[in-house]
C-alpha cells in the first residue's frame, strides 16, 4: 500500500518518483517506518508456510482443471 509499505509510483511519473526520493532522503523517521512496515509485510506474506500453501493450492487447482477436461 502506498505510504504504508512503500512509495508507489505509476510508470512514467517522474515527478512523483522525485517527490518520494526527496521525502525518503529528508525524513529519516518516515523512511525507517516505511522500511520496517515493508519488512513485516514480507515476513508475514512470504514465509515458507505461506509459500508452500500457495504452491499446494496452485497444484490442486491445476489438477482439478486437468481432471475436469478429461471428463
Describe the structure.
With 71 residues, this protein is an all-alpha fold. The protein has 3 helices and no strands. The protein has helices at residues 14-26, 28-45, 48-70. The model has no long low-confidence stretch (mean pLDDT 92).
Shape: elongated
Q: Determine the strand fraction and express it as a percent band.
A: under 5%
Helix content: over 70%
Order of helices and strands: HHH
Low-confidence stretches: none
How many angstroms separate the termini? 43 Å
Mean pLDDT: 92
List the total number of helices: 3
Short synopsis of the structure:
The chain has 71 residues and is mainly α.
Which structural traits does this protein have?
71 residues; mainly alpha
Set down the secondary structure blueprint:
Elements: H1 14-26, H2 28-45, H3 48-70
